[in-house]
Amino acid sequence: MTPCCRYCADPLTLSFADLGQTPLANSYLQPTSEARAAERSYPLHVMVCRSCRLVQTTETVPADAIFDHDYAYLSSYSASWVAHAARYAEAMTHRFDLGSTSMVAEVASNDGYLLQHFAGAGIPVLGIEPAGHAAELAEEKGVRTHVAFFNEATARELTETGPQADLIAANNVLAHVPDIRDFATGFPIMLAPEGVVTFEFPHLLNLIEKIQFDTIYHEHYSYLSLLFVEQLLEGVGLRVFDVEELPTHGGSLRVFACHQDARHREAPGLQKVRGDENAAGLATDAPYAGFGARIEAVCDGFRQFLAETATAGKSVAGYGAAAKGNTFLNVCGVCADEIGFVVDQNPEKQNRLLPGSHIPVHGPDRLRELKPDFVVILPWNLAEEISTQHSYIRDWGGRFVTAVPDIKVF
Asked: Considering the entire predicted model, what is its pTM?
């Protein structure tokens, strides 16, 4: 049966990346035989809609199976991401003259990593977050949080009981919703007449050019271009007026949108990114062809690295129990015999097993204890932060490694 586009419902006929059967990338296992036996995998195939150009997974895993109360991702465990959020809060407060009479909301507010900065400046905030545990942590930071998935119905409920927002942030969530049209419809409802909503998401153009296939996993239902996002927002009555290019997550866009009749003027960043996407041909089939072969070349390079280190009697560990790392390890077919353990600062992930590869996860102290020869940084977008924090591995001759888009040992 031919799958259909989750936005425009046209048949999907153009394959982009078929990564086979993989488990959910943030579903860490208890270290028991029962947990291993119960683990489920789902097809991970990404296709391109030739009509609206939404790049999307074909298998829709129910969102509540992923983002449950115990969802393990917590934003505050990345110092660089919290710093990014602080810079955003400062910049938006200045640019849009936010103050004590304003309202700032965030959709998918996680553990309050971003809204805490607005709240600390005396600006009223509201987080909307489906994962109950993350919401509880946000409340402890003083961030008022409504536990729900965001959509049109949630937006109507919130505006019936509270004010519309002068600023809504939606960072790295637009790709995470299966019904992207219903999700987008909520924003104009919650947004004040002259309010602004910002969306941040990894840019599809970087995924293609830098072979960032490990950012593909079931939580990411969509892989986004400005080309598609402008179409999506226009369809719900919003107008894009600016775009900023960001280094986060291997290269992201921050898209600024407002109501169609709001006074915000179009800024040069919008035309620049439109031009980049047009030059790359994102509205055509050409840039999507052959991506599978490029993925296989990256995996071959990493498997060769592991084989050479094993032959040399060297030990390999991993840093970062990140979702992208789990996709990478599972697509490459790596297991605990090849990478002995992974460390992560998040205690929610420690003393568990990575999904699929079943590599054990420990706290960072295990690096000092076992002194591996190589430490593969799986969240390569945080390589500078991680290598700086753990530079002590060089005391015993250890070296860091990143593997996307190719092997780098440093």
From this structure: 0.90
